[in-house]
Design brief:
Low-confidence stretches: 1-27, 71-76, 802-831
Strand content: 25-35%
Number of helices: 21
Distance between the termini: 117 Å
Strand order of the largest sheet: 13-12-11-16-15-14
Mean pLDDT: 82
């Protein structure tokens, strides 16, 4: 037997048992046995016991010739031989021999099948041939690496596009428009888990790459004789037309919910197009009277055939990316008689078959209609309350039956619904445009000159015309950031927003702390709401102001400290330069004009390059105490790419808001900067009149280091006056600080809260001219208060700075870590 088995086909089989000791998996089918190099049985399957009557214990260890006839028929693998049953009767079987891959001498696996099983094998072979040759289904077999092993070349979508040369290639390479990431994931799931799957899949087949088809797909795992998944079979059927028919049946029900979801003319027109392609038409265009886009209304009844119309929506369901004769937003000149009739008679027009009479040669659309193969047309006017707003054109192309009266009735019902929604959108557009125009005049159009932060902002003013923001440069190189939202909508909310924004700017200029500023705003709103108003418009603006939310933050680039306070639901998110994010727990005060303040602040230190996001978020989710969805989205965006440009983050946030269907939030982003240590000089001075000369000297020396010698005289005068006043009118030590930013800032702080006043001295007065001189010399000056006293500051413009962009300077550094500590002036010799 050993010599005869050596003539077998030595191909590697699926019944391999590496090492030769693992029992074969018992399952119904042909008998299996394994023999070693001495033709001794080393493995015996339950099927072999059933076929020949010997148990495994009786067979293992015996020579194979005890069970198999040693005739010449057994010399070829797959030939018929005679086996011996335990009871002595012969059993005719077909033997297939394969080599078992293992270290050492070769072993052989023998597969025995009876005549009936051989017939079954032939049936299986015929079945496989039918599936892969004659079946109208798409049948493909792939291996574990998603390489194609078998396919039905006559299946729809493959015929004429793929041949046998496709075998062995990755399926994504063969059909990139049909095989996508989702289909690959499902195939891998079947290969990994062994679970079959059925689903619908959309894609463009190799034979028709320009169009999407719908397929019903079934994935089946293919298992080897050992039970392991060795591949997968994908059987698919093109059900595109069936799915389109089902969509047409549901159209009238679904269209009522799909059209008019927004108050936007273009969106409503696009929704009408989306609801009718391909269920009603293959090509649809919607055009409206030009003034409708701006909220204008026309007189009831028909209009002239020369009325200006504008294309607002178009879709060609048969050709992806097809270009219409008129681009979206382009003016349209209608010359087709059917379109003119719809305008002048305000009646729907049915053209079952488009002929030369309906398509004049001088109409620019005639060539497009013929190229697209359109053969049937319906023109339906879009009219609401007797006022014409526009018209919709529905085309069918070759392959579909012409339109009939039933189609015209259905299209008319859909367009009647769409016309009401379009008219509502037109009315809203008129109100929105007025509110937006007012809002644009009141909000900043560009960021003011300041060095503390880099800023960017975005918001959907159409949804919230009462949203507002501001970036306010403050003394000491600091900056104030504010966002707010009024309690209502419309032009009245925009007017109230302007008043509140102006009040915030006025109060911020007084260097008020964030909590104190919100308290002043609250008092102002409360007083306005308590005053009677005869004008309904004025009363409405006051009502919108009451209940407004506001968040105010002050950032200092010298100390990198940030102080925030809020009223209402406005929120703040901060992201560090490495992407760590935090929703700031700013104590929530009552909305302006409601509840009982005071407001509270939160103080924090920000690393250079941190991004602070302020937004007019809505309340937390119903029943929850966590942040709103907008706050969560902002945190994810800031954390995912902390170095992304602020404009890019704003755009991503707006896209996320739109996709979620939210009302929109105003977002203000600020990326912090730190003033370098060599731009700040600070000294602690004793309260001694003799130290004034020392203060002038150290100031002049610092100006020389900065190359600002042209400011020596004015700075010496400012320092002298401010230090002298602090020593004369306050107690305790005096702090002198010079900051070189876009301007030269001189600050003198003391422990007194007494406010200095500018006055005009008489000619006979011996003093009182200090602040007057400073006001004449400095670009601006002022006083700010803290818990430890007050600081008087004065700014001088540096030549070439003005209000333009920041001059190039040293790289921003961590100021608080590298800055010099305040130092004593010590003995100073006059320069």
């Amino acid at each position: 037997m050993g010599q005869k088995l050596s003539f077998c086909d030595r191909r590697r089989g699926h019944d391999e048992t590496p090492g030769g000791t693992r029992p074969m998996t018992a399952r119904p089918g042909p008998a299996h046995l394994v023999v070693d190099e001495r033709a001794t049985v080393v493995d015996w399957s339950p099927e072999a016991a059933r076929l020949l009557g010997y148990t495994r214990d009786e067979a293992v260890g015996r020579h194979v010739s005890r069970f198999l006839d040693d005739g010449p028929d057994a010399t070829e693998s797959g030939e018929r031989i005679v086996a011996r049953h335990r009871d002595g009767r012969p059993v005719r079987v077909r033997a297939t021999v394969t080599v078992v891959e293992r270290p050492g001498p070769p072993w052989w696996a023998v597969r025995l099948s009876t005549e009936g099983e051989a017939v079954q094998d032939e049936i299986d072979t015929a079945l496989l041939r039918a599936l892969l040759t004659d079946s109208p289904l798409g049948v493909q077999v792939v291996d574990q690496e998603l390489r194609l092993l078998r396919l039905n070349l006559s299946a729809p979508g493959v015929r004429g596009a793929l041949g046998q040369e496709a075998v062995g290639r990755h399926i994504r390479e063969l059909a990139p428009g049909l095989v996508d990431e989702r289909l690959e994931r499902k195939l891998r799931h079947t290969l990994d888990s062994g679970e079959p799957m059925s689903f619908l899949h959309v894609g463009s087949p190799p034979s028709d790459p320009a169009h999407d088809h719908v397929y019903s797909v079934t994935l089946l795992p293919l298992r080897g004789s050992a039970g392991h998944v060795i591949g997968a079979l994908a059987a698919s059927q093109d059900v595109t037309e069936r799915e389109q028919a089902r969509g047409r049946m549901d159209l009238l029900v679904e269209a009522g919910a799909r059209i008019g979801t927004t108050l936007d003319v273009r969106t409503t027109a696009e929704e009408l197009v989306a609801a009718t392609v391909p269920a009603v038409a293959d090509i649809v265009s919607v055009d409206v009277l030009d003034g409708v886009l701006h909220g204008e209304a026309y007189a009831p009844g028909p209009v002239s055939g020369r009325t200006r119309l504008r294309r607002v929506a178009f879709e060609n369901g048969r050709e992806r990316g097809a270009r219409a004769a008129y681009d979206t937003d382009a003016l349209v000149e209608y010359l087709l008689p059917s379109h003119v009739a719809a305008l002048t008679e305000l009646q729907s027009v049915l053209v079952p078959r488009l002929g030369p009479d309906e398509m004049p040669a001088d109409d620019r659309r005639t060539a497009r209609i013929r190229a697209d193969g359109a053969h049937s047309l319906m023109v339906v006017p879009l009219a609401a309350r007797g006022v014409l707003l526009g018209m919709a054109s529905f085309y069918r192309v070759r392959g579909h039956a012409p339109y009939d009266e039933g189609d015209l009735v259905m299209a008319s019902e859909l367009c009647a619904r769409a016309a009401v929604c379009l008219d509502n959108a037109r009315r809203y557009t008129r109100e929105r445009d007025a509110a937006q125009a007012l809002q644009r005049t009141l909000l900043p159009r560009s960021a003011p000159s300041q060095s503390a932060v880099e800023v960017a902002w975005r918001h959907e003013s159409a949804h919230s015309p009462g949203d507002w923001f501001d970036i306010i440069p403050l003394s000491g190189a600091r900056v104030g950031l504010v966002v707010g939202r009024m309690a209502g909508q419309g032009i009245d909310a925009a007017a109230a927003m302007g008043q509140l924004c102006m009040a915030t700017n006025t109060l911020a200029a007084q260097d008020l702390a964030p909590d104190e500023l919100l308290g002043r705003l609250h008092d102002m709103v409360t007083r306005r709401s308590d005053q009677p108003a005869d004008d309904p418009r004025a009363a409405s603006a006051g009502n919108h102001m009451q209940g407004a939310s506001c968040l105010y933050a002050v950032y200092d680039p010298v100390s990198r400290s940030c102080t925030l306070a809020r009223a209402g639901h406005a929120a703040a998110v901060v992201a560090g330069p490495l992407g760590e994010t935090e929703v700031l727990d700013v104590p929530a005060g009552p909305p302006l004009g409601t509840g009982h303040p005071p407001y509270r602040t939160v103080d924090m230190r920000l690393r250079e390059g941190s991004t602070l996001g302020l937004l007019t978020a809505g309340p937390p989710p119903a029943g929850g105490t966590g942040p709103s969805r907008a706050v969560q989205v902002l945190g994810e965006l800031l954390g995912s790419d902390p170095r992304r440009a602020l404009d890019g983050t704003c755009e991503a946030f707006v896209r996320a808001e739109r996709s979620a269907g939210d009302d929109g939030s105003l977002l203000l982003l600020a990326r912090t900067r730190a003033l370098p240590a060599d731009r700040v000089a600070e000294w602690n001075l004793p309260s001694d009149p003799a130290v004034v000369s020392r203060a002038r000297a150290v100031s002049l020396r610092q100006l020389a280091d900065w190359g600002l010698g042209d400011l020596d005289f004015s700075t010496e005068l400012i320092v002298s006056e401010l230090v002298t006043n602090a020593i004369r009118h306050a107690d305790g030590p005096v702090r002198l600080r010079l900051i070189r930013d876009r301007a030269l800032i001189c600050e003198v702080g003391d422990g007194s809260s007494t406010s200095p006043h500018l006055r005009y001295a008489y000619e006979t007065d011996e003093g009182g001219r200090g602040l007057f001189l400073i006001a004449q010399i400095a670009h601006r000056w002022g006083t700010r208060y803290s818990a430890r006293g007050k600081t008087i500051w004065a700014e001088q413009l540096i030549d070439g700075s003005g209000d333009g962009p920041e001059e190039p300077g040293p790289t921003m550094t961590e100021a608080s870590e590298n800055a010099e500590p305040a130092r004593d002036a010590g003995p100073v010799h006059p320069a």
